## 1
Amino acid sequence: MSAGKFETTNLGWRFQQWQQQTGEWIELKLSQLFPESLPNVPDNSNNFPSWDFSWVVRGIGILLLAGMVGLLGRWLWQWLSGVRLRTIDRRSPSPETQKLAVKAWLERSRQQQQKGNYRVACRCLYMAMLQQLDDAKIVPDRPSLTDGEYDRLLQENPKNSAYKVLLETHERLYFGRRKATAQTFDRCQQAYREIEGKS
């Protein structure tokens, strides 16, 4: 350090000061709560026991620090999860979610199924269903609609059970983070065929 330059503050020093002040406050409160536990001995006596609450202060400090780290970790995880969910949201611009014709979605689904990527293959069927609903003016595509809202809007539709398969599968795969299998894709494909009237 050059002459004349001194460190004015230090995070470790601040924490130590806070720890000491907290310890003194806890010691004061404990002595007020349990005055009978302190012996009635003159102040200058060597027999007066030393009340050392530094372990309590350290413990509280560690708990508070762990709590803050835990809260920060939870907030960070939620934020990162939110970013991940937004990136796979059907309304966000990405190659997987761009607006395509039903035929193009079905072709993508077939390609992904052949690669064994059943999660994306199911999603493509889901996107084809949404585009089909929009094209047929059954439920116009609105970015704000959730899978649950689509389900409610399709309650009276005769093919409601087929729509429900695709909506629930999409919700489980993308928001419940379930793994897609060949059987998952087969169920979605069968549901989509029922929607098209080809079952």
## 2
Amino acid sequence: MENTIEINNLTKKFKDVTVLNNISVSFEKGKIHGLIGRNGSGKTMLMKCICGIVPPTSGEIKVHGKRIGKGTDIPQNIGVIIENPGFLPGYSAYNNLKFLAVIKNKIGKNEIREAIKSVGLNPDDKKKVGKFSLGMRQRLGLAQAIMENPELLILDEPMNGLDKEGVADMRQYLLDLKAQGKTILIASHSAEDIDVLCDTVSEMDKGVLSAIR
């Protein structure tokens, strides 16, 4: 059994408020792992710590065997949707992803086009992202997360704003990614999403994580 993410005694405090309380958990490679819990329970903060966006107060996080904050600041080979994906409103979907792809310079226009198509959008559509519905922005956010073919996906409420058909498409797409050997950590308010998708489920409550299955 190989773990993509290993977390030991992770605590995050802001002054005297404990947002994450002594969390130890591992997430096995090639599975979909669900995080549930009400707003403010700490789910998003845990994801931000795993991604290297927020440093922990104490404890350690390893992604792909490398300690975040010591061996590397931001995990390699990771795709992320946390909160609302930020795009340039005056540009098309394709041009937004092209600007982002230039940062790492790992992929070209074919990979960008395929990522956009794979989430049900048209790479040739000139419509500006500022005119997109919330569901279209979520689809584009997923295209951004997967365009560089990462081994690990961290997805915070990826179904937000999607209609019934969009949710069905997204679920199938995530199951296809799992079949390719990807590891996915997903936070969702939908019990149905969690039941359909997840191999393991953990619940956050007031900064404490407990395994459900």
